[in-house]
Amino acid sequence: PALLPWLQYLAWSSTGASSASLARWSERLSPWLILHLLMPLASGGPSRAAVLSGAFGLPLSNNFLERAGWVGLPALAFAVLAAARRPRDGEVRFHAGLALFGLAAALGVPPLPRLWRILPGFSMANPTRLLLMFCFGAATLAGLACDPEGEAASPRLLAWLGALALLALVVDFAAVGRVWGQLLPGEQGFAAGQAAAFVLEALVAGALLRKPAWRRWAALPAALFLLRPASLVNVPAPASLLYPATPGTRALAAAQGHGRFLGVGPVLAPDAGMPLGLRDVRGVDFAGLRRYQELVTGRDGDFGFWERADTLSLPPSLIALSALAVSPRRPGRIPPGWSAADYGDLLVYRAPAPGRRALFVPTAEIAVPAQALAAVRAPGFDPAKVVWLDDWFAAPQMSGARGSARITRDEADEVDVEVSADGPGWLVLLDSWYPGWRVSVDGRLASLRRADYAFRAVAVPGGVSKVRFTFSPWPLWIGLFLAALSAAGLAFVGWTDRFPLV
User: Which residues contact 64 (CB under 8 A, 6 or more apart)?
Assistant: First the structure.
């Protein structure tokens, strides 16, 4: 279930070409990962004591979750117990090997990076994500050893684990000590608190190893310890506090309407305004679609194009551009016909006519993908006059009808459009086409077509039509089915174990 969305993304994103230029196969996590498996917040978290990252030589942009890979000390302790108690057991060997392989892949242990470079699929993925294999293997090993009827861990094993915990504390103190004088009192308290929490968790893990009868309650402290870092990664706070609106962003949202804006230069990072309802033409969420990238730049394989999209050569109507956001410190030249207003934090340019994402188009042309791309990137192309379809063969259509389209509901996974026309034609929605989107016209399922190389279209009749676009990806439903099937299988095994059929 986890691989299905990735495989779909691989087919429709720019991963293949961009990975070659970025050498994704060579990415690896810092050796400090070893310490973070024991102390996940040693170098701080996304919301607390970020300066601690410097003590470990980790950039602030480093993905915190990727370098954590944390399953909790009780789980790690039981995983070690399983390996020590049943070293010849095939199941234990398999999951121990899986965990070690995932850890080695994330750290880039030779010769794995060279293998990633030549293996299909692996050469186009970030190998640090294989740390998930470590988490899965370690957690499964923990389950194999967490048996209330089992034996207590030997004093020798406890001594080895205690020595490892002490070594982790010494390494942590040495790293944090280098920047201790630079930390604010609150940050010093955070660092000390992480060390204290580590000691407490290590003592609980040791007690569970030593007292088999207590293991029936092992899930409770393990869950509580897992919630501790989760509370600092997913900060519970109102959206208005995490993403405060400013006079400039409010004005930009009003100028954007149902279209999009373009952030010029460093004024707004791509997609930074998504929580505020802002739609950036640059849209960088690394599920960036290959076709959209080719539409904007004319080629594929350049992930950095998001940063240089302020030099777009496309007509504003093709990307539904309504406004520009510019830093007041670098106002630049006002585009011809655009009006400007300074809101202190943003300089907002309004387009002479607001961008429209929903268009009624009377004429459809059929082409192969390369022809469609060339047609929509040609100077003077007007998406409101003709739509280019390249998904499957059909006869061109020209109705000469006139009409309009209006977005009535606009959500992340559902868009409602009302179309009024005096004859049949096409509704074109200038949002990205992607597998999983479905469309209905007046409540009836219709064929969703790929329009203008990267967008969506559906045939509509004359009169007033209610059109709804919904996102319902098939990997999600397959994953839910497999999860339900697994749950039913586990329930059946548990039932037959309690009430044997024979």
Answer: 45, 46, 233
Average pLDDT over the chain reads 86
Cβ burial 185-214 (10 Å sphere, 16+ → b, else e): eebeebbeebbebbeebbebbbebbeebee
Q: Which of 249, 204, 258, 256 is nearest to 226 (CA)?
A: 204
- Cα–Cα dist 231/49, whole Å: 14
Tell me the C-alpha distance between 169 and 195, whole Å: 7
CB-facing half-sphere around the CA of 176: CA atoms within 13 A:
26
Collect all residues with Cβ–Cβ distance below 8 Å to 124 and sequence separation of at least 6: 10, 15, 16, 19, 20, 24
Taking residue 379's Cβ as centre, other Cβ atoms within 10 Å add up to: 7
CA 94: distance to chain centroid?
30
Averaging pLDDT over each range in 119-123, 221-225, 373-377, which range is the top one? 373-377
Q: How far is CA 212 from CA 98, 146, 156, in A?
A: 26, 8, 17
Q: What's phi and psi for 386, nearest 5 deg?
A: -150, 140
| Residue among 24, 41, 20 nearest 130 (CA) | 24
Question: Residue 260: helix, strand or coil by DSSP?
Answer: strand
The pair of structure tokens assigned to 232 is: 């600092």
Across 167-193, average pLDDT: 90
CB-CB contact of 218 with 146 (8 Å): yes
End-to-end distance of the chain based on CA atoms, in angstroms? 35
The β-bridge relationship of strands 425-429 and 414-421 is: unpaired
Q: How many CB atoms lie within 10 A of CB 473?
A: 17
| One-letter amino acid of 454 | A
Spatial strand order in the sheet of 463-471: 403-410, 414-421, 463-471, 437-441, 444-446
* 20 band by pLDDT with thresholds 50, 70 and 90: confident
Q: Which residues, 6 or more positions from 246, have their beta carbon under 8 angstroms from its beta carbon?
A: 343, 344, 345, 346
Distance set, CA 413 to CA 170, 408, 431, 436, 470 (Å): 49, 14, 11, 10, 6
Query: Distance (Å, rounded) from C-alpha 483 to C-alpha 15?
Result: 28
- pTM, whole model, 2 decimals? 0.77
Is residue 309 a contact partner of residue 292, using CB atoms and an 8 Å limit? no
